[in-house]
Amino acid sequence: MKLLEGIKSRKSIRAFKTDPVPVETLMEILSVSVQAPSGVNLQPWEFFIVKGEALKDLKHASLEEHRLGKTPNPELPIGDIKGVSPVLEGVFRERQVELAKQMFGLLGISKHDKEGMEQWNERMVQFYNAPAVIIVVIDRTLQGLWPILDIGFVAQNIILAAQEYGLGSCVMRAIVDYPEQIRKIVGIPESKRIIIGIAIGYPDMNHPINRLKTKRERIDEIVTLVS
Hints:
The chain is an alpha+beta fold. The chain contains eight helices and four strands, in the order ααβαααβαβαβα. It has helices at residues 3-9, 23-33, 52-67, 90-107, 114-124, 146-164, 179-186, 219-222, and strands spanning 46-51, 132-139, 168-172, 192-201. The relative contact order is 0.24.
């Protein structure tokens, strides 16, 4: 797949086939992805690949925390306060609402269908049934926001490179919502800060949710040329 084609065709996959992804394939993807830039060549990223029984345990633990009503507590804060999503306004709120309308329209779920909404939420906290997830961490000694920016670069490489192998992906906060459970099941030491998770697998293109393609603003609306 050509690079520009891959960038243009990329989409978040929210339904996966059960087919396992070979560890060798995931390692190849990561080997390519670490060519990402990083400040002063910091290369702050480390990865945990979770599959098989460990992933089943992680999905189950995440679902149980959700059903118990536990507030998400990711180590990278969601908003100003951990566990509290920021209140969006203006065009940012409009984009959020439009995404929800598109998603639930494809799923045939109305805003009054509480049971349907909860079923979808439970699917989300089980990482859309992906056969593998990649958890990205950094060392706790790394302070400030620049290492987080570097994680964004490497995550983008991962989701683009995955397409070369016929894989789809979804960058998900839900994977890292409950870090205590992650540490217990995956064995991530306290010396590492859990940043983000990526669900990865072969897309189930028969599922209606994978027809979703979010809109992008016209480039002339968001670029200021200064010369």
